[in-house]
Amino acid sequence: MKLQRKNRRALALGALAVSGALALTACGSDDTGNGNGGDASASAQAGNVKCDDAKGQLQASGSSAQKNAIDAWVAQYVAACKGVQINYNPTGSGAGITAFTQGQTAFAGSDSALKPEEIEASKKICSGGQGIDLPMVGGPIAIGFNVTGVDTLVLDAPTLAQIFDNKITNWNDEAIAKLNPDAKLPDLKIQAFHRSDESGTTDNFTKYLKAAAPDDWKYEGGKSWEAKGGQSAQGSSGLAQQVKQTAGSISYFELSYAKDGVKTVDIKTEAAEPVKATVENATAAIGAAKVVGTGSDLALELDYTPQADGAYPLVLVTYEIVCDKGNKADTLPATKSFLNYIASEDGQGLLADAGYAPMPAEIITKVRETISSLA
């Protein structure tokens, strides 16, 4: 077991080195590691992948939040299923759903469940069926910051709301200082960055602000950023890069993008101590999620104001959007095979090392059952 976990960790870290839009094929499976150790890792995992009748190209797009997880999964999958090419383009949740409802992709990744109008639009390409939400990846939305001389920063929902609504504009503001009495906060302008594209991460972040700071965040929310002021960047990777290179910056993105020295905020909740952005703390919050979708749809309702100690409140779940019925005959085998793998124990087992939270057992069990019934 120790060797297997070590191999999984080596593979996940190797896969995270992949950059740009993903277009991995079987001949690219050498990228799963360096030297014989990487090949051995891929081979060990590949033996557990069931390819069935999968073949050809599988086009998918959407959530940039799950890109690092997709990288790790595809590296494993194509090492086993050499007749399949998977192209995942991290265009953002909104663009991914649009491409799916226009019949351009076999599945989409979205950090928000389908809206009623999107379900209705999906019926045009899901012959006799509709698009459904399969929760596959969880994790914390980290608040990254770049403030010289400050290594630990505590913020609460009202303060975050005012920062991202351009109401608090300097790092030595009294509200920030009150939460951080021991920090040497500089007289420095706050550079708040938000997503320029339609994003499920934005949707979840603003849902948190609405739920936890209703007096300070008056916007409706959704995938598009509504507050005035601030600066923008494309995708989670774009926001993380801005935080890394811009003095005084702050932004929101998945924990897997908070690397290379990017520091993250501890969030003050109703619990006794501020909560750090970790996979374990996000799992504690996601475990309280409820399935609110009907039929084969597994959309979840998240709790953005948890009171339990160690429950990180700012979380998201990424769904794979797929037709329950009416999938294209030429892509259905590969779609089911790939989704079966990423929902499997091995697939979910890669997530923690890649900075994500696996789905709770009771939820992922339902996901596996639903995938087996796709037609």
CATH architecture of the largest domain: 3-Layer(aba) Sandwich
Strand content: 15-25%
* Average of per-residue pLDDT values: 88
Number of strands: 14
- What class do helices, strands and sheet pairing give? alpha/beta
Pfam family, one: PBP_like_2
InterPro entries: ABC_phos-bd_PstS, PBP_domain, Phosphate-bind_PstS
Domain PBP: 54-345
Protein name: Phosphate-binding protein
Overview of this protein structure:
It is a single chain. With 375 residues, the chain is α/β, with parallel strands linked by helices. It folds into two domains: 2-139 and 319-372, Periplasmic binding protein-like II (D-Maltodextrin-Binding Protein, domain 2), CATH 3.40.190.10; 141-285, D-Maltodextrin-Binding Protein, domain 2. The chain has 13 helices and 14 strands. The chain has helices at residues 2-15, 35-46, 67-80, 93-101, 116-122, 157-164, 174-179, 200-212, 235-245, 279-286, 332-343, 345-349, 361-372, and strands spanning 22-24, 56-62, 84-89, 107-110, 131-146, 154-156, 191-195, 231-233, 249-254, 263-264, 266-268, 290-291, 300-301, 315-323. The strands form three sheets. Strands 1, 2, 3, 4, 5, 7, 8, 9, 10 and 14 form a ten-stranded mixed beta sheet that branches. A two-stranded parallel sheet has the order 6-11. Helix 3 (67-80) links the parallel strand 2 (56-62) and strand 3 (84-89).
Structure characteristics:
375 residues; alpha/beta; D-Maltodextrin-Binding Protein, domain 2; two-stranded parallel sheet; 14 strands
Lay out the secondary structure.
Layout: H1 2-15, E1 22-24, H2 35-46, E2 56-62, H3 67-80, E3 84-89, H4 93-101, E4 107-110, H5 116-122, E5 131-146, E6 154-156, H6 157-164, H7 174-179, E7 191-195, H8 200-212, E8 231-233, H9 235-245, E9 249-254, E10 263-264, E11 266-268, H10 279-286, E12 290-291, E13 300-301, E14 315-323, H11 332-343, H12 345-349, H13 361-372
Parallel strand pairs: 2-3, 2-4, 6-11, 7-8, 7-9
Antiparallel strand pairs: 1-3, 4-14, 5-9, 5-10, 5-14, 12-13
